[in-house]
Amino acid sequence: MKRGEWNNISKLEPRNFVCGHCGREVGSVEGWFFTQRFPGSSRVTAWIYICPICKNPTFFDERSQIPGVAVGRAVENLPKEISDLYEEIRKATSQEAYTAAVLSCRKLLMHIAVEKGAEKNLNFIDYVDYLAKNHYAPPNSEPWIDRIRQMGNEANHEIKIMSRNDALEIINFLEMLLKFIYEFPGKVNLNSPSVE
Ligand SMILES: [Zn+2]
User: Fold this and answer.
1) Which of 10, 17, 150, 194 shows its CA 20 to 30 Å from the CA of 172?
2) Which residues, chain by chain, have CB under 5 Å from ion ligand 1?
């Protein structure tokens, strides 16, 4: 946590929000506001609130919160490259960059497959099939895999802008896959008695 104080801060109307920096649900009364002038009138149309927990600023206008709340949850025991890319994907969703997030999900799936022994330079569908065939995807996840195949193709061959829901769908699947492949096996190794 940061030490120190922001200066020239104002008291604002209290606002509850999920902080995009620390992920906590917070209430804040501290920050700044923007008064927009219209012909014959003026009103407050934007705010910056300081999170009381992590002290980072969040911008609000009448329709958005920046940074927003990242999709998905953190996963433990990931190899560094996979962890970095997964966190980058989550960050992209907090900036409403959903198409970038979905495209990077393709890249992440390919990375996981190669890390688990698939050949390099295959195409996307082959990597997805590799994960499914080698039991890296949980049983009954075939409908998910099909949806990912379809979504990957859509995003690459036509420029189709992805929505928050599209990103949510594929990131939830990836999160489950990452837990299944890396987090749970990691926990078993930690807890099993050593054989000596
Ligand atoms: Zn915070």
Assistant:
1) 17
2) 19, 21-22, 51, 53-54
